[in-house]
Structure formats: structure tokens, C-alpha cells
Amino acid sequence: MSVTPAHPAYESVADVEAAAQKMRAFYLTGATLDVEYRRQTLEKLRAYLKANEERILAALTADLGKAPFEGYATELGIVYDEIATCLKHLNSWARPRRVPTPIVHFHSTSKVYPSPMGVVLVLSPWNYPVQLALVPMVDAIAAGNCVALKPSRTSKHTSELLIDILANVFPPEFVCGFPGSGAMNDWLLEVRWDQIFFTGSPNVGRTVMEAAAKHLTPVVLELGGKSPCIVDETANVKRAAQRVAWGKGINCGQTCVAPDYFLVHERVVDDFVEQLDACFHRYYGEDILACDEWPHMISQRHFERVMVLIEQLNPNATVAFGGHGDPDTLRIEPTCLRGVTLDDPVMNEEIFGPVLPVLTYKTLDEAFAIVRTFEKPLATYVFSDDKHVQQRVIRELPFGGATVNDVVVHLANNHMGFGGVGNSGMGAYHGKVGFDCFTHYKSTLAKGTWIEMPIRNPPFGDKIKLLRMLMR
């Protein structure tokens, strides 16, 4: 293991600006245009991560209570997969692509050239502090950019380790980690970047977009929202309960694509809730608060926020199971709420915790009407064995991405882009879509000089007849 280089001190926006200028100077040398340089960098990153896996998994446990299996499956494994995909396809992705040329431009050749955006800023969150920092960074590096990365200070142990990793793997003029508090975020947003990639809440996303607008800097916003899960009367209820308990249990529900609330057909709702309770206990034991594999809330503030959502219910609402929390360990039981209304606080914000509000419906149109009262979600889930119902959900409801008869897993397929729509975000990444996210495609047309097409030159006379034949 190499010795961590000393971190530069950033005490003002001027220090951040100076670091950004060094990155820009390095970018202008053209070093990152070399595809082999990018490949070597990604291979070096992968090797360093593998050599430090135990430190990374321990940091995730310290911050979020993630068991090593969960830390690897939902963080490191996804980063490794992204690196492997980029290494496999980078040569073809980075190659100029010839496209057809209309006959009116005879004799010409048209090509599209992938070009890096330049020096990009990645602002990552605390809930998946490894995956959501490194996957966009990997995509940006693959596309040939220099990267400034600011991890969230809330996931303290992991973020400090990430800064160390970046310092050991990359020269700071190529990839630079910025530690620090909220003041650092403000300083970073004052600096001009060629692109900003932000993952977090819609409220902070608006702040990022407003700051970027001052420089006309393009932004990619990966946000969140209330992602619905519909369980209809044809669903395999046992399988639905198993998969919901798994998906909502990951990271104690602190997942941007976790199912947020449940619309369950009235014929199967009792069975669904009963099986859901049984699944959580089968996975995490009778005393879930004492289970070492049950993650905890990130902080006291978030623990208290979620407990308030459980407590502030209308008089007709009930806690079907769970409802307890331990302020010493920051663990909250999986908690199912029944009888909630759209006016309850739990239905007026993204929960980001292990709370499962269950509403019932009679017709699919009724369920759709409830979904449409909210902003466009990052994800939507449907459990149904009816292909017509599945297709109606996919075609008629707005969302960033969806999974049928499971939850969460669509984001782990990097052959598809992952991103939101409307209030849940703009832009997408992962795999080729991630390469495209950090790439500007230069459209070029090269024309020969051995012949001239006089039709376009004045005087025009009756040339319009020929023009109509060529452009119809």
C-alpha cells in the first residue's frame, strides 16, 4: 500500500480556482485524448480499489452499518462492473463514426467525433458514497475528461478514504478530490467548470443548476422522489414480498430508487403485508434492531426525521409492523403503515428510510391517479402477472426507470442508462450512456475540392426545380 500524499489545503474559493486552473492546463496538453492513457488510468484505479477492499468495506460499515456483502454488492461490485465495461468497449466508443451525407452535399464525407467535455465537477452523496462517486468519475475518465470530485462530508469515513484513494491513484491535475464542509460546496459552485454532475435531492439540485447557469455550464442531475410500487391482484404475492423486503432493506431504505410507497390491490393487501413482515424477520431475525446485517441511518438527524414520519399519522392510520427505533445504534425497524392518506407527512416527502406506507386501490386507473399526484419519480415498480397491466404501467406513467416483478435492479444493468425525468433529474449515465453523458459529439463535414456544385450559387434562375428534386 502506498503512502497517502499530503492533501493540499483549500482555504478559499481562490484555492479551489487555482486547483481548477491546474486541471485545465493539464487537459489542454491533450494527454487525456489518448485512449490508452484512459485505459491505463482505469486499470490502475481498479487495482488500487481491489488492494484496499477491506478498508473500503470497513468505512461503509462505519458510516452506514453496511454488512461487507452488501457493501461489495451495492458499491464496489458496481464500480468494478463499470470499469470492466468501459475497458471492454472504450476503443469503439472513442472512435470517430462515419455517417451518411445527403446528396446535395456531393462530394463530401460526414463524421461524428467523440470529444471530452473538458474539466468536470462531480458532486456525490452520502447514501452510496463509493458507487455514486466513482461510477460517474469512471465514465468521465473513460470519455477523456479531467475530474474534480467532492464526496459528501456526511459519510465521513468513506469520504475521507475516497480522498486518499484519489490522491494515491491520480495526479491532482488529472483527478482531484476536494474534502471539506458546506463552504467547499459553495466555493466549487463559484468556479467555472465544463460540466457539473450532481447526485442528491431536488432542492439542492436547483441550487446547483442556478449556480451553473451563471456560466452556462451544462448539468446532469441525478435526484430522487417518491417511487411507487404497484402490486395488483394477479401478482405472485409471496415473490413480491420477498423482493420488496430485499430492496427496501438495502441500506435501510436510504436508496434513491427504493420503493417509497405501495399501491396494493384490495384483494391481496392483507396477504402482502403479512408476507412482507415474515420476509423481513426471515432475512434479519426476530430482533431486527440487534441484527448486525441490518444497516443504520446515516446520522441522528436523519434517524429523528424518519421516526417523526412514523409518529405523525392521521388518527385512522396504524402501524402494521415495526415502528421502533434505537437512538443509540441509529437503527429503525422495517415499518409498515396502513390507512395513511396523501395528507400524512410520510406521503409528502421522499422517505429515505425503512418505512413502507401501504395504500389500497380497486382499479388500475385509481392507482394511476394517485401516482400522478406526485412529481415524476426516479423509479416505478409493478408486480403483476398480467402483461397488459405491465405494459400500461410502462407506457402510461412517467418515470426515470422501472422494474417489473422486482425492485431496484434496473439500475445495475449498465447496458441501459440510469437517470431521472422532471423533478427526479435530467441526464443519464452508466455504460455507453455514461460515456455519452461526458462527451460532446463534434459533427464534421469534409468536402472535396475537385468539383463544385453550381446549383447553390447565384444567379438562381429556375434552379428551384432541380432543388426540389434533390430536397424532397
From TrEMBL:
Organism: Eggerthella guodeyinii
Span of domain Aldehyde dehydrogenase: 9-443
GO CC annotation, single: cytoplasm
Entry similarity comment: Belongs to the aldehyde dehydrogenase family.
CDD domains: ALDH_YwdH-P39616
Gene3D superfamilies attached to this UniProt entry: Aldehyde Dehydrogenase, Chain A, domain 1 (3.40.605.10), Aldehyde Dehydrogenase, Chain A, domain 2 (3.40.309.10)
Oxidoreductase in keyword set: yes
A GO molecular-function descriptor: aldehyde dehydrogenase (NAD+) activity
Record's keyword terms, sorted: NAD, Oxidoreductase
Pfam families the UniProt entry points to: Aldedh (PF00171)
Biological processes per GO annotation: aldehyde metabolic process
Origin superkingdom: Bacteria
The keyword Oxidoreductase is annotated on this UniProt entry: yes
Protein name: Aldehyde dehydrogenase
